[in-house]
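Methods: example folding runs. The two proteins below were folded one after another, and each record is reproduced exactly as written to the output file, sequence line first and structure-token line second.
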Amino acid sequence: MHNRTYTLSIQRLSTEAAIASVQSIPTGLTLLEAQRRLDEHGPNLVQELPREPMWRRFCKEFVQFFSLILWAAAGLAFLAEWIDPGQGMAKIGYAIVVVILVSGVFSFWQEYRVEHTLAALRRLLPEQVKTLREGAVMQLAAEQLVPGDIVLLEQGDNVPADCRLLEAFSVRVNNAALSGESIPQTRDAQACETTDPLRCKNIVLAGTAIVSGQARALVFATSMGTEFGRIAHLTQAAGQPASPLRQQLAYLSRLIAGIAIGIGILFFAVGRLIGVSFWHDFMLAIGIVVAMVPEGLLPTLTLALVLTTQRMARRNVLVRYLPSVEALGSTTVICTDKTGTLTQNCMTVKRLLLGDVLQGLTAFEPGENIVQIYRPAFVTAGLCHDLKQTERDGSTLLLGDPMEIALVDMAQRALPQLPAYPRLDEIPFDAERMRVSTIHAMPDGVTLYCKGALEAVLPLCSGILTNGPTQRLEREGRERIVAAEAAMAGQGLRVLALAYRAVPPECKREQLECDLVFAGLVGLEDPPRPEVPEAIRRCREAGVKVIMVTGDHPRTAQSIAREIGLVQLQNTPVITGEQLSGLSLTQLMLALDAPEIIFARVGADQKQRIVEALKQKKHVVAVTGDGVNDAPALKSAHIGIAMGIAGTDVAKAAADMVLLDDNFASIVHGIEEGRAVFENIRRFLTYVLVHNVAELVPFLGFALFKIPLALTPIQALAIDMGTDSLTALGLGVERPSPRAMSRPPRPRDEKLMNRPLALRAYLFLGLIEAAAAMAAFFFVLLAGGWQYGQPLTSETALYIRATTASLSAIIVLQIVNVFLCRSASRSIFATGILGNPLLIAGVASEIVLLVAINYTPWGNLMLGTLPIAGAVWLFIAPFAVGMLSLEELRKWIVRSTSPETKHES
């Protein structure tokens, strides 16, 4: 990218030479030249990630593999209607087309709605920038900036483009969006030799923020030429892995299609062997294929995922891509950022050393005596800062460096009545001095207050504040202060020294910072979120490995990791970005075998490399991030999780999910919900396949034994798309099992429809239900005087009542079956019949529809039914009881022979 070419040279030049290198002048570009460059370079906007046109994304919802199977089934139904009109096959075809359209529109609408929600969160580059053109300062839209422009930046501004500083006054910049490092970095206008734009002292980059100071800066790169744009390009180049659910559904679709077509061909061949006419045989084969395809599976799956995503949204997880719900449940490794995800993204005072080193390291507990004795330390923290105040919602807020905000907050809690003593002068912070001093008119005279790095402040101190008179600071005292600072730093704290002095009259400026009195040390940290340790524990219990991947200092990362329980071993490896760059892929994969590992000071491409290595190790990888630097890894991972509050636009666009509260604990809730999704799909898949067998057997009896067709095609479709829809959906949104997070992630190669599920659905529950349906059919026929071999037309009342009985038997047994399918191993007395309102509503609607099908004129007309006698219901009831009893017996045998299944879902 061409910004790197600039960065390799422009930072080495003097300010005058830097301006000349981009053919600009100190008074700014002329309006004519600026317009020419805008036409040449284009607007200063990060290009949108390449996306398919809306119409194509909409159309793709209707050509997924399972949708293609349904299109084929609809086509066969229309073909059958054309060959043999009046059999109701056209109604089936139209109904299947409606199913495909509704499912596709609903899935597209969900993702479209989420994108609009994300659009409301986008606040990335500043809208207006103070720009110098033709010697005048004007407000310009950030997108109008061009290389060669000179911009004016101050505290609170976002940097609109990659810039070389020309003048800098106490400038510090937060690079977290690009580097992941939360500690503000100092910047100045001096030439430097560093080639890394993130470390170069005179470079500020697009997407970062000025936390203190003022600057005049030269724009040298805009749009995709910025470092921001370079990382966005990495994101575009990253491939999107297929989600485990998409892979499973593709396999399931092929399997169901193969079974349906195979059975259809088999019975077509049998029909030809026994002399059935070609067209009659062909119609029978079509009926078998259509009966074997679960038309209700696709809409049920789509609706179940949508309802699950809505439940996850209530737990602060916004899902952009429906299949990623289940992918999160399959996760084996989470690569998480630190700042704002594991921590609160706000600095707080963690430790204090007040004056006399004999006080030792103590947690800050404000009390009257300690505050009065060490009042100068708190006054220093409260007055020596560069913060600005603003009013918002009736309260006063401080803007600027989070560390300074934390110090002022501490001082205000200790000294709530501390006045804003007039500031007379300031000696600003810079990278060489590593300290800042402010001079104030105090009631007892002019006083200087100083804070900064201990190595910069301690040599200037000649005295130390104690609980008595100020004492001279001797060598032994200095050593103890240094030891205390090292102990704080060892805990991952950011340590600042506080000092002060009374300024004598006529004191020269260069002598102001002399003979200071050492007031104390302050250790600050970005504290962990209180929910995170429990979330880490639950991940460990669930067999999910959590790896911290951060741009922060290794010592800080290790300290936070140990505090939240992410690290428990004594010698956990901490690999820095520099060390990572020296590792081969094999070495990295071996390093990832460690039970605990931390990556610190890593760059965007390195984070992506870690993800790719984990994927090669056959892990299902989830990645969290908020910065532009996280976007390539978010795109490469199986499941990318962006931060909704602190996250950048690029990160959100690359992610599959967005955490609305930026909280790691919400990921654990998402994993729990995702694990439930896989089991729920199995539940309603079992439920659907059972009635598919009951629909198939009448066709087989018709083909093999010349039995009248016990269930008409339109009645079979009424079960798929009508009576069973809401109950199947209820199974699809069962809440996670209490033990969902007590089991390891499911094996990656575990299929949705495995052998136990197929045997249970097809050869056990399905055959019981089919037997009930055929028995009810024959019960009505025989009671009406029918004899085997006697022909029946579809208009005969006896035949219509017999098919109604068969349909009713299937629906009644499906009402029982829905409660049996809540668990493959637990008893119905353990799972209960309550606890799932949608399931109860589904059963209620199924009963209402059953009554309507039997006893209302419109139900009779639509489905070709007639009312059945009470004796038929009494005949069906024992089959329902028998199905319940046999399934309970099977579950008891499973629990007895496999104790580990006792608590499974």
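Second run, written to the same file directly after the first:
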Amino acid sequence: MKSGFVAILGRPNVGKSTLLNALTGEKVAIVTAKPQTTRNRIIGVVEVPAQKGVHPAAQIVFVDTPGVHKPASQLDRRMLQEVHEALEARDLVLVLVDATRRIQLGPDHSPAAKARPGAPGSEDEFLFSLVRKLDCPVFLVLTKIDLVHKDQLLPLIESLTKQHNFAQVIPVSARKRDGLDMLVRKIVDVLPKGERFYPKDQYTDQPMRFMVAELIRESILIETGEEVPYASAVVIEQFEEPVAPARPGKRQLTRISAVIYCERDGQKAILIGKGGAKLKEIGTGARRKIESLLGTQVYLELHIIVEPGWRNSSGFVDSLDWRRQIEKLAGEQEHEEEPE
């Protein structure tokens, strides 16, 4: 048996979450066309059966990370911290590069960079500067290859392989599942021998409360534009699971209450929409996804609170970490159970 942690690294919007979902066969991470959709480390667990004469059985623990970009706010810095923490405990790193996008390496010649002498290089250079510090095997994974001609891949590979001594270069299309079996085989080859980190039937370490919050945020990303998606955060305040069996012909009901935080009154107005229409669209879209996840009927209540400048508040940003939320809930439950 082999097992190990595989960190997935890349610039925003390269398809990391799409790849993770395709590998696990489950919706582990939300996916939208907007960059910076992923804000936290997300674990997806893949059980690989033994293949006689090819490889032994394995458990691959994939760790999807936020898109690597230069931090401009406390939220950005928190996301970059999530990346660094994922890289601390890993046996292998996958560096994803969007095959459809032009890669800019070397100095950053943008007006913003020129105004800040001594600033790091381009965003792509910033990514590869992290890669060069790694002392473990690194695979270069070219994504979205179904959207480019094959003759465009070779020059891209030649350019990128000058940046690092990659152990493997694997082109994939998560949408069409091209190259995924090859990727899994190559990963198993380099993983160390070991026992499972997670039970055989577990595909993520995320609690349902966090996954529900992410599905609500996914609906916000899809239904709104401009700055609103990036200034929004979701916290589950109530998650009341059914305690009694459903009546014949009825599904059990889960009651959920969530708060959507934004930074300005104008953003709140956009989230609500005319006569509450936008909030209803967000809620309806999220409720359907949550019902699919939980397998129950869902009563979803959404509230909006303006929290000015929350993205630059370290305390507020830290409070969004689901691990801290779970610790807080556990503390509250212990306090309630203490005898008077």
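Comment on the second run: The chain has a mean pLDDT of 89.
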